[in-house]
Amino acid sequence: MNTLTTQACLRTYNRLFKENDELYHEIARCFGLSDCALWILYTIREEEQALTQSDICESLFLPRQTIHSAIKKLEEEGMLTLRYKEGNRKNKELALTKQGQLLAERTADQVIAAEERALSHLSEAERSRFLQLYQKYINQLRKELTEIQSAQLSESETGGKK
């Protein structure tokens, strides 16, 4: 019987995760975009609603400064504009310009379509199971890492004394 140890599973998972990340990096480079710029365009197209910089940060789990820099570059290139939300002078919404719409069609829309085609090769049950298992793993990993962070915090507060 061939059993997959947790270490072997983790090595395979990490390799696949990095390979997946590299696929997106390579396609962004092919389009002449930074990874972050591609993900911003992707998120805008996927959400189909007005988003703020904060919304993008929450969606992409990337640092605010990274998102801000990519947004500024896209704005300088005439791909998007920032405008205040109606009734809210604090948060600005991102809006693609005509040129930005064309860029999104050439880039993010193609990536989304490719992902949909790739997922269509899995049955509905496989897609559902894939997402359920991945979410279960993320939830458990979050719990495990939170425990490490709590222990680290306690250790730093006590000066390493137990």
Detailed description of the structure:
- By secondary structure, the protein is mainly alpha-helical.
- 70% of the residues lie in helices and 10% in strands.
- It is built from seven helices and three strands, in the order H-H-E-H-H-E-E-H-H-H.
- It has a three-stranded antiparallel beta sheet.
- The model has no long low-confidence stretch (mean pLDDT 93).
Low-pLDDT runs of 5+ residues are: none
Distance between the termini: 44 Å
Class from helix and strand fractions? mainly alpha
What topology, given as strand order, has the largest sheet? 1-3-2
Question: What does the largest sheet look like?
Answer: 3 strands, antiparallel
Indicate the overall shape: globular
- Strand element count: 3
Computed Rg: 20 Å
Return the string of H and E elements. Answer: HHEHHEEHHH
In terms of DSSP E residues, the strand content is 5-15%
Q: Give the oligomeric state of the chains in this entry, treating copies of one chain as homo and distinct chains as hetero.
A: single chain
Mean pLDDT: 93
Helix amount: over 70%
Helix count from the secondary structure assignment:
7
